[in-house]
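Question: Hello, beginner here. Any chance you could explain the protein record under this note? Any guidance would be welcome.
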Amino acid sequence: MAPRRRRRRPWHRTRAYRLARTALLAAVLVTVGVRCDGHHRPATPLQAGGPAAGPDSARSDRRGAGREESDPAGPTPTPSPTPPPRPLPRSRPTSFRIPSLGINAPITGLRLDRDRQLETPPLDKPKLVGWFEGGPTPGETGTALAVGHRDTRTGPAVFSALALLRPGKLIEAGRADGRTAVYTVDSVKVFDKAGFPDKEVYGPARRPELRVLTCGGLFSRRTGYTSNVVVFAHLTATR
C-alpha cells in the first residue's frame, strides 16, 4: 500500500505567517498613538502605579535594620505626622508644575459643553493645562480637576509622560493671589472609557484633592484612545 501523503498546513497557520502578523501588529501599536483629539469618557482600572523601590532605598532599609538590631536602647521613635494644611480660599489658578516630569505649564479655564462633558484645552495649544472652573481652585476643599492632552497632530503634548508619575511626587498649582497649593500624588490609575468610575474620580472630598487626567491606552483613528490616565493627589502644603 502506498504511503499516505502528509497534508500541508494552511498558509494562515504557518509559523512564518504568525511571526509576520506579530511584527505587523507591533508596528501598528507604535504608529497609531500619535495624537489625542480629546478626552473620552474613561472605566475599570487596568493598572495602578506604585512607588518605585530603587537600589538606594533598598540599601537604606538594610542599614536601618542593622542599626535597630545593634541599638540597645531600642528602635528610634516614629515622629508624629505633620498636621494637614488649612484649605485655601478661592483664587484663580495660573500655573501648573510637576517637577519630577519637568512640566511647567500655564493654565486655561475649562467648562462643561452642551452634553455636560468636560471641555479640553485647544488642540493648537498642546502645552496648556485646563482647570475645571466649576470645581475647586488650587488648595480649596473638594475635588479639583486638571486636564491636558497626551499628544496632538503636531506631536507630544503637556501630559505625554503623565503615566510615568509615581506616588509621593509633588504637583504644584500656582494661584492668582500669589500662593501655591502643593499636592502629593497618592496613586496613578488607567481606566477604560467603557466603564469610567465617575464617583471614584469626580466624587466629592472632605479635604482638598486633585485629579489630573489625560488620554491613555490604545489609539484608534475612528474612536480615539481607549482609556484615560488619572492621577489622584491631595493637598499637603501651601506657600
